[in-house]
Amino acid sequence: MFGYVRPFREELKVRELEAYEAMYCGLCAAMGRRHGFVARMFLNYDFTFLAMLLAPKEDRPSTGYCRCPANPLRKKCACTAGAGLEAAADESVILSYWKLRDTVEDEGFWKGLGARVLSVLLRRGYRRAASSRPGFDAAARGCLEELRALELAGSPSLDRTADTFARLLQAAAPDSGDEVRDRAVGQLLYHVGRWIYLTDAWDDLGEDLASGSYNPIHARFEGREREEAEYLRTTLRHSLNLAVSAFSLVDFGGWGPVIENILYLGLPAVEELVFRGEWAGVKKRPAHAGFIPRQ
User: Fold this and answer.
1) What is the total count of domains within the chain?
2) Which residues neighbour 130 within 8 Å (Cβ) at sequence distance 6 or greater?
3) CATH code, domain carrying 33
4) Is 190 domain-assigned?
5) 3-state secondary structure 234-279
6) What's the domain range around 207?
7) Model pLDDT for residues 90-142, shown as the tens digit of each residue
8) How far lies 54's CA from each of 13, 71, 211, 286, 292, in Å?
9) Across the strands, what pairs with 76?
10) The dihedral of CA 34, 39, 40, 43: what is its sign?
11) pTM, entire model
């Protein structure tokens, strides 16, 4: 998965950082409880963000303690299960499974062997998640098939390819019955999804050029990628501005400051690191580590 949607930890208050880490651990525990230990291998920062968007509006999250599989001797503070956390856990497993299957289709037998094995291990958890979230499962499958068709055709359109992934992430927000909130959260996820897709395309540009794989930025600019970097950053900023506008329409309670930190500070910091070519080193840091772009 991607893992670009992170907070700028150095600017979070202590209680906000504790709440974020509790949500991260709560999502891990929910994935394991609902879909088995293998599902925990696909714990993702991006779906921790989704879990916060879907969490109930409360001043402080409800928490408990659970065993951490990375350190079984130590209990971790984790958000307790709720509808939002369960939805994020299910959808994380569904998207992980279909991304693995997409990799199997794209790569040869040996190169795609790892993804094939992981998809088999995750299949039982995926089936449980898909039975709970059939709408998102259909959306994920349909959007990834559409995206694959665009890639096979060598589509030079940044908008069409990015829109396909953005609609996939937009579908991750279940209907809450509050029309205004649902529309705002859907738009927030749409524009964050668009930002993720294009940021990932730039991040993978060098590797894709070396391997001859499809990359929408290369297909669009055909050798002028570096010259057009500022154009791409302009469209990324536009997506973030629209995500921020949607955020401002919803009261997220105690999660608001953390979500705000991610949109205003975390995503721009990640983008800066990606365009500097420094992201590869930062993303390998442990989950508790922060990141500060070099000035």
Assistant:
1) 1
2) 94, 137
3) 1.10.600.10
4) yes
5) HHHHHHHHHHHHHHCCCCCHHHHHHHHHHHHHHHHHHHHHHHHCCH
6) 9-282
7) 999 999 999 998 888 777 666 778 888 999 999 999 999 999 999 999 999 99
8) 21, 28, 39, 25, 28
9) 66
10) negative
11) 0.92
